[in-house]
Amino acid sequence: MKMFPDEMIIPMKVTSSELDDLLSQHLGTPREKILSFEKSLFELNDNINLPLRHFTADDVYVREIFMPAGSLVVGKVHLHEHLNIISTGLVSCYTEEGCIEIRGHHILKSEPGTKRALFVKEDTIWSTIHKKRWGDIPPNNEKDINKFYVVETYEEFDSKRIGILP
């Protein structure tokens, strides 16, 4: 089984017609569709690097990403409630709750267990705002930061959520 990279997302450049072809192949519950879609993107192995920027202040941690138009992006499963700020851009956003279009400037709340599949229609800047969940010494790298906020699978989410307080 292939493991996903440490980055928060698995992006690739596609056209709208290629997106339609990819989405039409996925059946099942919304969760199953997202997972199947993610697997298809990873198997195409045409990923692009979308680096994250990290910011901290007092007890707040922010991660910001720039996603170019035409990208398909699938996030990891989030462990905790947090806020999202879409500063600029336009995306189609699919979650277990359904599909919505989001245009920046927009603020939304994410619940624990949220995983998103995005089609980026316009260049987009998206930030997630979290409670800082480490002590005074910050983690050494993104993989160490991720363990406080996200997991790869819903099974990991279910096992980690036992005993975690929001």
What top-tier CATH class fits best?
Answer: Mainly Beta
What is the overall shape? globular
Radius of gyration using CA atoms only:
15 Å
Which regions are unreliable across 5 or more consecutive residues at pLDDT < 50? 1-12
* Gap from first CA to last CA: 32 Å
Q: Identify the CATH homologous superfamily.
A: Jelly Rolls
Description:
The chain has 166 residues and is of the alpha+beta class. The protein has a single domain (12-157), classed as Jelly Rolls. Helix content is 24%, strand content 39%. The protein has helices spanning 16-24, 30-44, 142-149, 154-161, and strands spanning 12-13, 52-57, 60-67, 71-74, 77-78, 82-95, 98-103, 106-110, 117-131, 150-151. Strands 1, 2, 3, 4, 6, 7, 8 and 9 form an eight-stranded antiparallel sheet that branches. A two-stranded antiparallel ribbon has the order 5-10. Strand 2 and strand 3 (60-67) form a beta hairpin. The N and C termini lie far apart (32 Å). Mean pLDDT is 80; it is low at 1-12.
Summarize it.
The protein has helices spanning 16-24, 30-44, 142-149, 154-161, and strands at 12-13, 52-57, 60-67, 71-74, 77-78, 82-95, 98-103, 106-110, 117-131, 150-151. The strands form 2 sheets. Strands 1, 2, 3, 4, 6, 7, 8 and 9 form an 8-stranded antiparallel sheet that branches. A two-stranded antiparallel sheet has the order 5-10. The protein is 24% helix and 39% strand.
Write the layout of secondary structure elements.
Elements: E1 12-13, H1 16-24, H2 30-44, E2 52-57, E3 60-67, E4 71-74, E5 77-78, E6 82-95, E7 98-103, E8 106-110, E9 117-131, H3 142-149, E10 150-151, H4 154-161
Antiparallel strand pairs: 1-4, 2-3, 3-9, 4-9, 5-10, 6-7, 6-8, 6-9
